[in-house]
C-alpha cells in the first residue's frame, strides 16, 4: 500500500481537527434523520403515502408494499443548457432499468439550472452564484417527501452540481449517485475560438463571424468541451467516488453512455439501508473525500470557481476547508493534465488520452489521494483508477494504460509542472486566488499603476479609447457576493488578452469571479474582504501601484489605504429578477466561506 504524501496527510489532519465539532453534529443529525425515515410506512401516514404514489401506475403496489427500493430522481433538466438537454429522456429509461432489479424510480423534483455561457456579460449573471443556493433549496424540497431509499442526481454544470450536493447532504442518510450526460463531441478548436473572440473585441471580426465561431464550438447536446467549472464538477465527483468510474465525459447518445446510466440505476438499488451494502452520502462525503476533490482540481488545472464551491459543499457536510488548505495542497500536487484553457486540447482529447482513470491511478500511486474512502462503487477509490468500456454488450472496466498523448496527460513521475494550478495571494488588498495553470510563468508577477472600474462596460470603453494600452492592473470592484451576487467577468477576458498580446504587462484584481474559462491573463480573483462594506479594494484609486505575484503570493499596494475613506457602491440596479435576490446578497458570506447566504444563516 502506497504511503500517503505528508502534505496530504498534514492538511487532512488539520481539516479533521478544525471540523471535529461541526462534523460530529452533522453525523449525529444524519443518524437521527436516518432512523426517523428508515421505513416510509412508519414515517408517513397512509394518506401521505397514497399521495406519493398515486400517479405511479404499475409501480404503485411495489412502492406501497416496499417490495423493493424506491429511487428518487432530482433533475436539473432543461433545453437551454446543452449539457442538461439529454436528461429529459432519462427518467422514463431509469424507471425501466429500476424494474429490472426489483426497484422503482420516480421524479422527486426538478431544480432550476442556469448557464453562465448564456448569461455571461448580461444582467442575468448577477443571479448566477446564488442559483446554487436556490438549487440546494429545491433539492431539499424535492427530498422532503420522504418517499425514497436512494437518490439519483441529474446535473453537471457550474453551480448545479455544488447546489445538488449541498441539498443532498442535508439528506445524507440516503445513498446518492450523480449522473452525467457527457461531453458534446469536439467542435472547432478552442484556440480558433479564442482568436475570433479577440478579433471581435478589436473590431476586426463581425458579429456574424463571431456567432458562427461560437456555434461551431457549442454545437450539440452535452457539456461544453473546455475544462471549465462544469467538467471540473464531473472530475471532482469521481475523485470523491460519487458517480460510476469513468462516467464523466463519455459522449451523449452512445451505447457506453447508456450502459453507464443503466448501471448507475442498478447500483442505487444495491446500496440502500435495506440491503447488505449501505453507502449513505454522509459517509461518502467526509474530510478525506473533500481533500481528494481538491487534489483532483489542482492536478488537472480545474476551475477556480471551486475555491468557492468546495468550502460551501464541505460546510454542508460539517467540514471546514479554506484557501490556506487549497494553497498548501497545490504546493504538493503536480500538474498532470493540460486541457483548454490550460492547453490546446479539450476534454474529449483528454478522455481519449486516458482520462480520469489515468489521473486517479497516477495520484494514488504517488500517495496524493486517500484510497480508503467510501464510494458508491467498489471497495475504495482504487475502483476509479479504471476506464469503462463495452465488452460486447456488457459494461466493464479496465486499466487505462499509458498516456495516449503526452501533450495532454502525463504520469506523476513526469508532470507538466511540479505544483498544482491554483495559489493563494494575500497582502494589504486582502486574500484572493490566482489560477496559475493557464498563465505563462513569466507573467506570474505584475506590478503597475491600476485603473479602477465598477462595470465591465466601462472597461470596454476604456479599451476602445486606448486607455489600457500600457502596463496596467485593472481593478474591478463591487463585484462580490454582497454587492451584486459575484458575477463572472467573462467580458474582460478577450479585452485583457488583446492588451497583453500588444506587449504590455496586464493583470486583473477583482472581488468578482473568473472561472475555469479564464485564460492567459493573470488575475487575483474572489478577493476577500469584498469592496462593499469597506474592503481594501474600495480604497484604491486610479494610479495606485498594485503588485500581484503568484511567485511570492503577494497582493498589495504601496498606497496608504488607511488614510482614505472607502468609495461607495452605485445603487443596485433592478430588472432581470435581481431585486428578488436581495436577501441572498444581504446575508452572503465572504467567498472563502463559500459565498452563500443559505449556509451563513442556516446554522451550518
From TrEMBL:
GO terms for molecular function: 4 iron, 4 sulfur cluster binding; metal ion binding; phosphogluconate dehydratase activity. GO terms for biological process: D-gluconate metabolic process; Entner-Doudoroff pathway through 6-phosphogluconate. One of its GO terms (cellular component) is cytosol. [4Fe-4S] cluster binds at residues 157, 224. Keywords: 4Fe-4S, Carbohydrate metabolism, Gluconate utilization, Iron, Iron-sulfur, Lyase, Metal-binding. Pathway: Carbohydrate metabolism; Entner-Doudoroff pathway. Its cofactor is [4Fe-4S] cluster. Residues 69-382 form the Dihydroxy-acid/6-phosphogluconate dehydratase N-terminal domain. Its EC number is 4.2.1.12. PROSITE patterns: ILVD_EDD_1, ILVD_EDD_2. Binds 1 [4Fe-4S] cluster. Gene3D superfamilies: IlvD/EDD C-terminal domain-like. Residues 407-594 form the Dihydroxy-acid/6-phosphogluconate dehydratase C-terminal domain. It catalyses: 6-phospho-D-gluconate = 2-dehydro-3-deoxy-6-phospho-D-gluconate + H2O. NCBIfam families: edd. Catalyzes the dehydration of 6-phospho-D-gluconate to 2-dehydro-3-deoxy-6-phospho-D-gluconate. This is Phosphogluconate dehydratase. It comes from Croceibacterium soli.
